[in-house]
Specification:
Layout: H1 3-7, E1 20-24, H2 29-40, E2 44-49, H3 52-64, E3 71-74, H4 82-95, E4 101-104, H5 120-146, E5 151-156, H6 169-188, E6 195-201, H7 208-213, H8 230-236, E7 247-249
Parallel strand pairs: 1-2, 1-4, 2-3, 4-5, 5-6, 6-7
Helix pairs in contact: 4-5, 5-6
The chain binds NADPH dihydro-nicotinamide-adenine-dinucleotide phosphate (NDP).
């Protein structure tokens, strides 16, 4: 499978009809755009995020467009403990009985600083939100994903998760970890072929995180999140059945992202 196939994918209107897909960080940025796009193609989206008001906005937008009524999972991935994860899984089990997709999109940047000066507690926070929480959520959701006939897990990576770059500290380390976790999981799940696992790098995209990383750049030159949805729809939908263990790019690599 090559990047061009993902980028050129034109999802049929009902490509994701009937699928239940959980998106983390669904209230803003790329997660919001993907959630709206998934719903437009028929998916029931479970909107997970830490700011309730943002989730409600996305929820209402989907309903106003006539999409399948989404669910909201108000969860702070920095502080959530086992009972909160268990409660989420219980409610998904009761409501849907399965999960057909899990998009690990939520992440934090932390700070950009040389390792020697990097704040160690910040390192811990970034690793927790970007890696440990994704691990914990995957761990508890696996029985639901295995209950689907064709489930897809997508981890969000970054170019600095494939080649280290000065000053990207915890964020780069976390994205390397995400790539590693995805490879381990893809290998573990390859035997029965029902749950596939891939990584996707959105590339430089006009969001709050990008502005935090590159405050001086001209935002207008960056693509909006809604313009990079095709590879997400591809990987989370039936078109990518059998595709697992890959790491893909939504855009040609241009600037550090
Ligand atoms: P944003 O900062 O715009 O959005 C991040 C989302 O994650 C927000 O919805 C935020 O919620 C949520 N989130 C953050 N912390 C938590 C938490 N503790 N618990 C629950 N949700 C949380 O980022 P992007 O949209 O730019 O990034 C999306 C993904 O794409 C990330 O994985 C990022 O690493 C990756 N990426 C982005 C690039 C870019 O150029 N934008 C380039 C390469 C990769 P809230 O708004 O409520 O805080």
């Amino acid at each position: 499978m090559d990047n061009q196939t993902l980028r050129n994918y034109e999802a049929p209107d009902a490509a994701l009809a009937g699928r239940v897909i959980l998106v983390t960080g669904a209230g803003d940025g790329i997660g919001k755009a993907i959630s709206l796009a998934l719903a437009r193609h028929g998916a029931t989206v479970v909107l997970l995020g830490k700011t309730l008001r943002k989730l409600e906005k996305v929820h209402d937008e989907i309903v106003a467009e006539g999409g399948p009524v989404p669910a909201m999972a108000h969860l702070n991935l920095e502080t959530a403990l086992a009972p909160e994860y268990d409660a989420l899984v219980s409610s998904l089990q009761a409501e849907y009985g399965r999960l057909d997709g899990l998009l690990h999109n939520a992440a934090i940047l932390g700070t950009l600083a040389p390792v020697e000066l990097y704040d160690v507690p910040t390192f811990g926070r970034v690793m927790h939100v970007n890696v440990t929480a994704a691990f914990a959520l995957t761990h508890v959701c696996l029985p639901l994903l295995k209950a689907s006939e064709d489930a897809s897990i997508v981890f969000t990576t970054s170019s600095v998760g494939r080649k280290g770059r000065a000053y990207w500290g915890a964020y780069a380390a976390s994205k390397f970890a995400v790539e590693g976790l995805a490879q381990v999981l893809a290998d573990e799940l390859s035997t029965d072929g029902k749950v596939r696992v891939n990584c996707l790098n959105p590339g430089a995209t006009r969001t709050a995180m990008r502005s935090q990383a590159f405050p001086g750049e001209n935002r207008e030159r960056l693509p909006l999140p809604e313009t990079i949805v095709a590879p997400y729809l591809f990987l989370l939908g039936p078109a990518a059945r059998g595709v697992t263990g890959g790491s893909f790019d939504c855009q040609e690599p241009a600037k550090p992202a």
